[in-house]
Every structure is written in C-alpha cells, then in structure tokens.
Design goal:
Number of strands of chain B: 11
Strand order of the largest sheet of chain A: 1-2-3-4
CATH topology of one domain in chain B: Beta Polymerase, domain 2
Helix content of chain B: 10-25%
Distance between the termini of chain A: 51 Å
Number of domains of chain A: 1
Largest sheet of chain A: 4 strands, parallel
Number of strands of chain A: 4
Order of helices and strands of chain A: HHEHEHEHEHH
Oligomer: heterodimer
CATH architecture of chain A: 3-Layer(aba) Sandwich
CATH class of chain A: Alpha Beta
Strand content of chain B: 15-25%
Chain lengths: 170, 216
C-alpha cells in the first residue's frame, strides 16, 4: 500500500528537532568559533596581542579569547615578535606539539619577513619553518588588524574540507 | 668630579706603563693587558669605583695591530665620576684578556657577550659560554670581517633543520641598506627605502637564485 504521507521533508513532530547539513559545514562551524590561540609572544608585538584580549578590542567576540600557554591545548599559534635563529628551533618544536588541526598567524613585520632585522641573527620570516595561514602587516599591528586576521583565518577555516581530511593519510 | 682626575694621576704613578688615552668625555687610560686586573682592582679599592658600567671590546679591523682593545667603563657611586680603562690584547688572532669577574660579578655576562660577539677569550672566567648566539655557532658576528647579513650555517637544531629544510642564511638585503630621506614632509616618501628597488625578495636579481620558502 502506498503511503498517503505526501510530506517529503523531515517531520520534526515525529523525529524531533534536527538540522540537516554537511559534515564539513558543521565541523568548520565549530572550529571557526572556538579557536584557542597560543600566544607565541617574542617581542613588542606581544603587547598588542595582550591589548586585543582586553575589553576595548575584545577578541572573545570572535570566540578566540581562550589563550593557552601550553601548545597541547591550543590550535592557533600567533607568532608575535622577532624570531631569532636561536628561537626558531624551539618555535618549530612548540608548533609540532600542537594538535591538529592547527593554524599559524604571523603577526607583524618581523614574524612575516624578518622585518627590519636583515641580520645574521634573525629568521627571515617564520614561514621558513612553519606553514603560515595569515600574515599581519604592521610594526606592531593595531589590535584591529589582529581581529581582521582572525576573521580572515575563520573564513579560511570555513573553506577547509574537514570531513575528508579526517580520513586523510598522514 | 675631582676624584677621577686624582685617580688617573695616581694610577699613572703606580703603574708606570699606563698612558693617557684620548677621550672626548671622561678620563681614560691605556693599561697593558698584564696589569689591567691590578689597575682595575686599585681603582676599585682606592678610588671607590664600585660599579662596572660596561665592559666591551673594539675590533680595529683586520690588519690592524693591536687589533682588539678591551674597554672597561667604571663609575664611582661615592665620588660620582667615571673613568675608562682600555687594554690592547696581545694576540690579533686569538685575543685574550684576564677576567674581572672576581672584582665585579657584573662582568660575568659582559665578558660572555664580548666573547660571543668579538671572540675575546677571558682567561679564568668561571663560565665562558656564548650568551646571545647559540652554542656551536662558528663565528663572532661583531668582528669587522663578518658581513652584517650573516653567513650560511645550519640551524642550531639539526632535527628541525632536516625537517623544514631551513638554514641560517645570509639575510637578503633586497637592495638595501635602507635609507630614509630626512626632512621629507610626506611621511610615506620618508619611509626607509632600498636604493635599488628593481628587485626584492619576490623578484630576485637574475644573478641570484630565489629564496626557499617552506611549504607545510
């Protein structure tokens, strides 16, 4: 016997409230709005990074206020400051300790390119040792620029194929 | 401020080989390297130069002899005066100077820095390790023959170096050194710029290979 039910859509009265979506969208939505940054504060940029956590700029509006000083509890390293060659190895090791998925923001001129330190002691851009997702210009950048970078990172996370990445061969 | 003058005169009387050193500000003396600890101890104990303000060295460039001069800046918190003591290192290749950590503990890190950047070895220093560059770095960067951009060597951590393929490189000068034009009213124009902007990190000079970037 053919059912007389003509309603094709999901009937919430029978099965409860459910939203149908793609796994990518759900996973990315969660990741986007709870980034836990790891403040890799190495120089004066770290001061601006502190400012962005305060009430005037309030990074918590974007769900990224939970600054974790342990790399194991963070998923977004914000490299804020001059990276010397002496520090570069430690930075890479800290990055390696972060759990996937993880992102890197190179904050300011020094982290992005070595900045004004064209010298024997300074790593010429943190992208030589870790993959960088967002670069912020400025010396140091305004807190608004950090928020802008965070929004750009969120936009990038939204485009990731997170569900299929779960099963990707390492 | 009379105390330093008296100190200098007395020092020259006590140490016959001490000579006047040209100075634009404070009194300064040259002392032979063999007598420098005794001279500094004399200044500290007799003239209350209780603060070692600075300890550094001068590299007079390759070919000069003496090539290295160690300089001590002393301050007396009792007489409120400065004096500068300089001593020429004997060797131009492996310069050495006696450590003054026993006189002023503050000399410890100053001497480590001086050793790190200029390669002056301080004999009898309790812990003469590099302080700014990493252990095992093969050069002394403030020597005159060392280029500002640096010399290519492996990263301090070889594991990280292998994993990332990164190394300590000679920093790209990108047409630099960068110069600002003072007196420029337009601040954008007054930004420090390379003299030759026809090439940069992104657009390498034809005679130089491009810079390697790590792709994660």
């Amino acid at each position: 016997m053919v059912s007389t039910e003509t309603e094709i859509a999901y009937n919430s009265k029978i099965e409860g409230e459910v939203v149908v979506s793609r796994a990518d969208a759900v996973i990315n939505w969660i990741r986007t709005n709870s980034i836990w940054p790891m403040p890799m504060g190495l120089a004066c940029c770290a001061i601006e990074l502190m400012a962005v956590g305060n009430g005037r700029f309030d990074i918590s509006r974007f769900g990224a206020e939970v600054m974790r000083f342990s790399p194991r509890q963070a998923d977004c390293m914000i490299v804020s400051g001059t990276v010397t060659y002496k520090m570069a190895s430690q930075l890479r090791r800290i990055y390696d300790q972060m759990m996937s998925p993880k992102w890197v923001i190179a904050m300011g001129a020094c982290a992005s390119s070595g900045g004004m330190y064209r010298s024997y002691a300074t790593l010429q851009g943190v992208d030589r040792i870790v993959p960088v997702d967002v670069y912020i210009s400025g010396c140091p950048p305004r807190p608004e620029a950090i928020l802008d970078a965070l929004i750009k990172l969120q936009a990038k996370i939204k485009t990731e194929r997170s569900a299929s990445n779960l099963f990707k061969e390492a | 401020m009379t105390a330093p003058v008296a100190a200098k005169t007395a020092l020259k009387e006590k140490f016959a080989q001490a000579t006047d050193r040209p100075s634009a500000d404070h009194d300064a003396v040259n002392v032979p390297v063999g007598e420098v600890v005794a001279a500094l101890k004399y200044l500290r104990d007799e003239f209350a130069f209780d603060l070692l303000m600075d300890l550094t060295a001068v590299d007079w460039a390759e070919g000069a002899s003496p090539r290295f001069t160690v300089v001590y800046h002393l301050f007396s918190s009792v007489n409120l005066g400065y004096i500068r003591v300089a001593t020429d290192c004997t060797s131009n290749v492996e310069p050495t100077a006696p450590s003054v950590v026993d006189l002023w503990p503050a000399a410890n890190w100053h001497e480590r820095e001086c050793y790190d950047l200029l390669g002056v070895k301080f004999t009898a220093h309790p812990d003469l390790r590099r302080i700014l560059m990493w252990d095992g770095y093969p050069y002394h960067p403030l020597r005159k023959e060392f280029p500002l951009a640096g010399i290519e060597v492996p990263l301090p951590d070889s594991e990280v170096g292998v994993e990332t393929g990164a190394a300590v490189i000679a920093a790209p000068m990108a047409g630099g050194p960068f110069v600002a034009s003072p007196g420029e009213i337009n601040l954008t124009e007054a930004e420090p710029r390379a003299k030759d902007e026809s090439w940069s990190d992104r657009r390498p000079r034809p005679d130089q290979t491009g810079l390697k970037q790590f792709k994660g």
